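ok so for the tutorial part 2 we go from a plain amino acid sequence to predicted structure tokens. step 1 is just haveing the sequence, like this:
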Amino acid sequence: MNRNPVGWFEIYVEDLDRAKAFYETVLRVQLERLETPTAELEMLAFPMQSDAAGASGAIVKATGCTPNGNGTLVYFSCRDCADEASRVEAAGGKIHKSKFSIGPHGFIALAIDTEGNVIGFHSLS
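step 2 — the prediction. this is what the tokens look like for a chain of 125 residues:
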């Protein structure tokens, strides 16, 4: 079976409730609590359809794992990335760079979530 190289991602957070409110507001999705083997690890997963393209992941509060703006950058797929970006500040985040063209690959916008992570939004138009 052919697969894309990314199968799962995790975004580390300090305040799980605050981060949950941010991502649910900006992306207009419901995150779902995942069972974990230890109390030192809490996870809320983004919606996932096993037969759809793309990877899913979770926001994670874990002992020893802190959020920062210098790690891996996760891009969320959007119909128009300006829509998600327009909800960032009201949800407690900051716009790092408003929607801009990346040539034949569409458009992106960059934001900083409530935990200090840089995230991206990608759309074809």
